[in-house]
Design a protein that fits this description.
Blueprint lengths: L2 H14 L5 H16 L17 E3 L5 E3 H7 L2 E6 L5 H19 L3 E6 L3 H11 L5 E3 L4 H5 L15
Parallel strand pairs: 3-4, 4-5
Antiparallel strand pairs: 1-2
Helix pairs in contact: 1-4
Length: about 160
Protein backbone atom coordinates (compact mmCIF):
# COMPACT_ATOMS: atom_id res chain seq x y z
CA UNK A 1 0.00 0.00 0.00
CA UNK A 2 1.26 3.47 -0.89
CA UNK A 3 2.17 5.86 1.92
CA UNK A 4 -0.61 8.28 0.91
CA UNK A 5 -3.15 5.46 1.11
CA UNK A 6 -1.94 4.59 4.61
CA UNK A 7 -2.14 8.23 5.69
CA UNK A 8 -5.65 8.56 4.27
CA UNK A 9 -6.72 5.34 6.00
CA UNK A 10 -5.30 6.57 9.32
CA UNK A 11 -7.28 9.80 9.01
CA UNK A 12 -10.47 7.95 8.05
CA UNK A 13 -10.02 5.60 11.01
CA UNK A 14 -9.47 8.54 13.37
CA UNK A 15 -12.67 10.19 12.11
CA UNK A 16 -14.61 6.91 12.33
CA UNK A 17 -13.45 6.38 15.93
CA UNK A 18 -14.21 9.94 16.98
CA UNK A 19 -10.55 10.93 17.42
CA UNK A 20 -10.83 13.61 14.71
CA UNK A 21 -14.01 15.55 14.13
CA UNK A 22 -15.03 17.22 10.85
CA UNK A 23 -14.46 20.69 12.38
CA UNK A 24 -10.90 19.72 13.36
CA UNK A 25 -10.28 18.33 9.87
CA UNK A 26 -11.56 21.61 8.45
CA UNK A 27 -9.10 23.50 10.69
CA UNK A 28 -6.27 21.23 9.46
CA UNK A 29 -7.27 21.91 5.84
CA UNK A 30 -7.41 25.67 6.43
CA UNK A 31 -4.04 25.71 8.22
CA UNK A 32 -2.51 23.73 5.33
CA UNK A 33 -4.04 26.08 2.75
CA UNK A 34 -2.79 29.13 4.66
CA UNK A 35 0.70 27.63 4.89
CA UNK A 36 0.78 26.96 1.15
CA UNK A 37 -0.40 30.49 0.43
CA UNK A 38 2.21 31.98 2.81
CA UNK A 39 5.00 31.20 0.36
CA UNK A 40 6.95 29.25 3.00
CA UNK A 41 7.83 26.58 0.42
CA UNK A 42 9.73 29.22 -1.57
CA UNK A 43 12.06 29.73 1.41
CA UNK A 44 13.12 26.08 1.65
CA UNK A 45 16.10 24.23 0.23
CA UNK A 46 15.00 22.73 -3.10
CA UNK A 47 16.03 19.64 -5.04
CA UNK A 48 19.33 20.46 -6.70
CA UNK A 49 20.27 23.16 -4.16
CA UNK A 50 23.38 22.75 -2.07
CA UNK A 51 22.16 21.45 1.29
CA UNK A 52 23.45 23.08 4.46
CA UNK A 53 26.16 21.03 6.17
CA UNK A 54 25.49 20.03 9.75
CA UNK A 55 26.80 18.10 12.71
CA UNK A 56 24.27 16.73 15.18
CA UNK A 57 24.29 14.11 17.91
CA UNK A 58 22.47 10.86 17.38
CA UNK A 59 20.30 9.49 20.17
CA UNK A 60 23.37 8.10 21.96
CA UNK A 61 25.39 11.30 21.70
CA UNK A 62 27.68 10.27 18.82
CA UNK A 63 28.19 13.16 16.41
CA UNK A 64 26.93 12.71 12.86
CA UNK A 65 28.79 14.98 10.45
CA UNK A 66 27.01 15.43 7.12
CA UNK A 67 30.30 16.33 5.37
CA UNK A 68 31.82 12.96 6.24
CA UNK A 69 28.74 11.11 4.99
CA UNK A 70 28.57 13.19 1.82
CA UNK A 71 32.21 12.33 1.09
CA UNK A 72 31.06 8.68 0.82
CA UNK A 73 27.99 9.38 -1.31
CA UNK A 74 24.56 11.04 -1.38
CA UNK A 75 22.71 11.67 1.85
CA UNK A 76 18.93 11.47 2.11
CA UNK A 77 17.72 13.69 4.96
CA UNK A 78 14.20 13.67 6.32
CA UNK A 79 12.74 15.77 9.10
CA UNK A 80 10.55 14.10 11.71
CA UNK A 81 8.24 15.75 14.21
CA UNK A 82 8.52 13.05 16.84
CA UNK A 83 7.59 9.61 18.07
CA UNK A 84 4.23 10.98 19.23
CA UNK A 85 3.13 11.74 15.63
CA UNK A 86 1.43 8.73 14.02
CA UNK A 87 1.57 10.27 10.54
CA UNK A 88 5.31 10.87 10.93
CA UNK A 89 5.82 7.29 12.07
CA UNK A 90 4.14 6.02 8.90
CA UNK A 91 6.49 8.24 6.89
CA UNK A 92 9.54 6.79 8.68
CA UNK A 93 8.26 3.27 8.07
CA UNK A 94 7.89 4.05 4.35
CA UNK A 95 11.46 5.35 4.28
CA UNK A 96 12.64 2.19 6.02
CA UNK A 97 10.87 0.15 3.33
CA UNK A 98 12.77 2.17 0.70
CA UNK A 99 16.08 2.12 2.57
CA UNK A 100 17.41 -0.87 0.62
CA UNK A 101 16.85 0.96 -2.66
CA UNK A 102 18.36 4.15 -1.25
CA UNK A 103 21.46 2.32 -0.06
CA UNK A 104 21.76 0.31 -3.31
CA UNK A 105 22.26 3.66 -5.03
CA UNK A 106 25.14 4.50 -2.71
CA UNK A 107 23.20 6.89 -0.49
CA UNK A 108 22.61 6.85 3.24
CA UNK A 109 19.48 7.89 5.10
CA UNK A 110 19.08 9.89 8.29
CA UNK A 111 16.17 11.58 10.07
CA UNK A 112 16.39 14.81 12.07
CA UNK A 113 14.01 15.60 14.87
CA UNK A 114 13.56 18.26 17.53
CA UNK A 115 12.53 15.54 19.97
CA UNK A 116 14.85 14.63 22.86
CA UNK A 117 17.44 11.84 22.79
CA UNK A 118 15.24 9.37 24.69
CA UNK A 119 12.47 9.69 22.11
CA UNK A 120 15.04 9.55 19.31
CA UNK A 121 16.06 6.13 20.69
CA UNK A 122 12.41 5.08 21.00
CA UNK A 123 11.48 5.97 17.41
CA UNK A 124 13.77 3.41 15.70
CA UNK A 125 12.68 0.69 18.15
CA UNK A 126 8.96 1.39 17.75
CA UNK A 127 9.19 1.74 13.97
CA UNK A 128 11.83 -0.97 13.38
CA UNK A 129 14.19 1.43 11.63
CA UNK A 130 17.68 0.70 10.43
CA UNK A 131 18.70 4.36 10.27
CA UNK A 132 19.45 6.96 12.93
CA UNK A 133 17.32 9.78 14.19
CA UNK A 134 19.51 12.76 14.98
CA UNK A 135 18.66 15.29 17.67
CA UNK A 136 18.14 18.82 16.28
CA UNK A 137 16.69 19.84 19.63
CA UNK A 138 16.47 23.59 19.00
CA UNK A 139 15.69 23.21 15.29
CA UNK A 140 18.82 25.03 14.07
CA UNK A 141 19.35 22.64 11.16
CA UNK A 142 15.66 22.67 10.25
CA UNK A 143 15.94 26.49 10.20
CA UNK A 144 18.87 26.33 7.78
CA UNK A 145 16.83 24.09 5.48
CA UNK A 146 13.99 26.66 5.67
CA UNK A 147 11.60 24.18 7.24
CA UNK A 148 10.65 25.89 10.50
CA UNK A 149 7.77 28.29 10.55
CA UNK A 150 5.30 29.67 13.00
CA UNK A 151 1.64 28.90 12.51
CA UNK A 152 -0.70 31.85 12.90
CA UNK A 153 -3.03 31.83 15.90
CA UNK A 154 -5.90 31.07 13.55
CA UNK A 155 -4.28 27.65 12.96
CA UNK A 156 -4.60 26.65 16.63
CA UNK A 157 -6.57 23.44 16.83
CA UNK A 158 -8.74 22.50 19.77
CA UNK A 159 -9.35 18.80 20.10
Amino acid sequence: MRLQDKLDAMTANAVENGLLSPPVLAQFAKATKDLVESGQAERTVKAGDLAPVFSLPDADGAIFDSRKHLARGPLVVTFYRGVWCPYCNLDLQALEAARGEIESRGASLVALSMQNAANSRKSPRDNQLGFSILVDFEGAVADRFGLRFKLPNSATISL
